[in-house]
Amino acid sequence: MTQLILASASPRRHALLTQLGVSFSVQSADIDETPMPAEAAREYVERIASEKAKTVAAFYPNCAVLAADTSVVVDGDILGKPADARAGLAMLARLSGRTHQVMTGICLIANSSSIVESVITDVTFAGLDRATCEAYLATDEPYDKAGGYGIQGLGGAFVTSIQGSYSNVVGLPLHETWALLTAQGIPSHLTTGDLRNE
Ligand SMILES: Cc1cn([C@H]2C[C@H](O)[C@@H](COP(=O)(O)OP(=O)(O)OP(=O)(O)O)O2)c(=O)[nH]c1=O
């Protein structure tokens, strides 16, 4: 059976793939994530996910490799991880009281082919005051997350509604990932009926 590698250092992605009951190992891919000039958000997350997968696949040609990239998108602008509290404050101010998109590109290299797709979730934030943003930025939660918030943590308090996949916001859309893996013959507990570890 083909071995699956998750090309990611993200603990959220590890937890989500584990949730699917898929056997995998982990190799992080360190790549330059700078957007190209005028690159559209969807192209960007798909390109970065592909580059992460390719980087790891080059070392493990006989394995299947899964990678993802998540960005927050507001008015077409791509928000990555805030470098510091000042950048985080600017991001939260842009997200306050409105709807933005969270886009995740996923790439699976398996059986000599590379498949890439992206999933979009609309996330609506309540209006945030400066003191609340500053209190949030004093925690360490925002700094390793696109857009400077985590819906699965304290940042969930800012979210009034979402439309689309929740797991996509956290970094790996479960349904689409499962469908991609299944199409390439990579089994999960759903294919094997093995729920003993759940
Ligand atoms: C919006 C949002 C993002 N995130 C996370 C998901 C991703 O891990 C991260 C975006 O950064 P990414 O560059 O997509 O991923 P990463 O650097 O964490 O991991 P790797 O490249 O090694 O796979 O933001 C949340 O955990 N919650 C949220 O609500």
Descriptive report:
There is one protein chain. The protein is α/β, with parallel strands linked by helices and 198 residues long. The chain contains 7 helices and 7 strands, in the order βαβαββαββαβααα. The chain has a single domain, classed as Alpha-Beta Complex (Maf protein). 32% of the residues lie in helices and 25% in strands.
Describe the structure concisely for a colleague.
The chain has one domain: Maf protein (Alpha-Beta Complex).
Instruction: Please write the string of helix (H) and strand (E) elements.
Output: EHEHEEHEEHEHHH
* Beta-strand proportion: 15-25%
Mean pLDDT: 95
Radius of gyration: 17 Å
Principal-axes geometry comes out as globular
N-C termini distance:
22 Å
Count of individual helical segments: 7
Category by helix and strand content: alpha/beta
Looking at the chains present, what oligomeric state does this protein adopt?
single chain
Detail the poorly predicted runs.
none
CATH topology descriptor? Maf protein
User: How many E-type strands?
Assistant: 7
Major pleated sheet: 7 strands, mixed
CATH architecture: Alpha-Beta Complex
CATH class: Alpha Beta
Query: Helicity range of the residues?
Result: 25-40%
